[in-house]
Amino acid sequence: MSLRLATFNVENLMNRFDFSGYRNQLNEDRTLALFDIQSEAEYRMLEQARAIAQSDDTRQLTALAIAATRADIICMQEVDNIEALKAFEYGYLFKMVGQGYRQKYTTAGNDSRGIDVAIMMRNETVQGQPIEFVRMTSHAYVTYEQFGLQTPELEALGNQANERIFRRDCLEIDVTVGGAPLTLYLVHFKSMGPPRNGLDGREATMPVRIAEAQAVRRIIEDRFGKEHAADKRWAICGDMNDYRQRVKIAGDSIDGYRFEVVDENQSCINVLTAGGFCENVVERRPEMNRWTFYHTRGPEERHLCQLDYILLSKGLAARNTTAVPDIIRNGQPWRTIFPAGQEVDRFPRAGWDRPKASDHCPVVIGLDMA
Questions:
Q1: What are the phi and psi torsion angles at 35 (to 5°)?
Q2: Is residue 167 within 8 Å of residue 212, measured between CB atoms?
Q3: What is the pLDDT of residue 364?
Q4: What is the CA radius of gyration of the chain?
Q5: Dihedral sign from CA coordinates of 312, 364, 325, 168
Q6: Residue 23 burial by CB count (10 A; 0-12/13-18/19+): exposed, middle or buried?
Q7: Which of 245, 241, 270 shows the shortest CA–CA distance to 260?
Q8: CA 336, 337, 342, 345 torsion: positive or negative?
Q9: Closest Cα partner for 332 from 29, 70, 55, 64?
Q10: Which of 134, 259, 288, 301 could form a disulfide with 297 if both were Cys (CB 3.0 to 4.6 A apart)?
Q11: 35 vs 37: CA distance, rounded Å
Q12: Whole-angstrom Cα distance, residue 154 to residue 140?
């Protein structure tokens, strides 16, 4: 009895327009920045036209990336709401995968933009085993104070003890697959953001992600018991906005690129994997071939890294020792630099920077649930 489980940050699957760029240049689309827009009403009209024109190609590429996973269950990040998810699945994905994902769940988290974690599930696996929803529990309300996680580092970042830990949610989904129980924890941790307090964006926001990771572990241990939690059937899926390694890129397309694997001293992922609590199964792949995201701030700052995770409990990983995740990179924009031997055929109409399926790559693994 097998299950294909995937995670994917689809990047802003919205069913509303974002007009905040008129007053905040950081949110302004670069296309509209080229024009002399005289009023907010004019901006709103142009933003609607731009978003509609761009959306169809983007959604087709996103749907192609999801279809390529052949997943029975897919955990998603940056979904606006259930109506946006339904419209996307029916209008795009259903045409590619037939019966599609009939079961869809999400809930309102803490992100001020309204982007949430969500899940889509087929009614049964490819082998015909029924997938049944049992319950859904949001942990968006949990505060630093409740879990005893407030630290001076968080205080220095302006996070108060009574504030909520998760920037979105830790959404707990219980299902059965052919009668076998499985619990999924859907997460989307704090983004790295710009440099602050003399630190780069990753270091400056690290205390928040560490607290989020500690909270996820606490939720799992409270649910199953601290002594037995690692042996239960569960997985943590999502965009954790952090990495333990990155592949630094130097050189250019003329003289050739050079790639160097660099280990990081600190990562929120370590909180979850410490003591063998769970396993980052993507690390079963070669070091140079674990990346799910291409980051660049110009030629002096380029790297490939893993931001997207399926962490299997120790018990579930032990039942699937030979399972190695696939990473779907065909939806990447052409600007992404691939190490030699990793090149893929891009999906039709993928652009230099956009349209694209997402800057993130879907991760999928086949699991034995017997």
A1: -105, 150
A2: yes
A3: 98
A4: 20
A5: negative
A6: exposed
A7: 245
A8: positive
A9: 64
A10: 301
A11: 6
A12: 18
- pLDDT tens-digit map of 185-230: 999 999 998 887 778 889 999 999 999 999 999 999 999 999 999 9
Indicate the helix (H) or strand (E) that contains 188. Answer: strand 180-188
DSSP single-letter state for residue 122:
-
pLDDT at 370: 83
Distance CA 296, CA 248 (A): 10
102-127: pLDDT as tens digits: 999 999 999 988 899 999 999 999 88
Would you tell me how many other CB atoms lie within 10 Å of the CB of residue 63?
Answer: 23
How far does Cα 210 stand from its chain's mean position? 17
Work out the burial of residue 99: count CB atoms within 10 Å of its CB; fewer than 13 is exposed, 13-18 middle, 19 or more buried: exposed
Confirm if 328 and 345 have CB atoms less than 8 A apart: no
- Select from 53, 7, 62 the least CA-distant residue to 239: 7
Minimum mean pLDDT range among 91-95, 186-190, 301-305, 362-366: 91-95
| Tokens read off for 205 | 């926001």
Token readout for 100 is 């599609």
- Alpha-carbon distance 208 to 166, whole Å? 8
Task: Output the DSSP codes for 220-285.
Answer: HHHHH-TTTGGGSSEEEEEE-S--SEEEEEEEETTTEEEEEEEE-S--THHHHHGGGSEEEGGGGS
Length of the chain: 370
d(CA 192, CA 203): 8
The answer to whether 175 touches 184, Cβ cutoff 8 Å, is yes
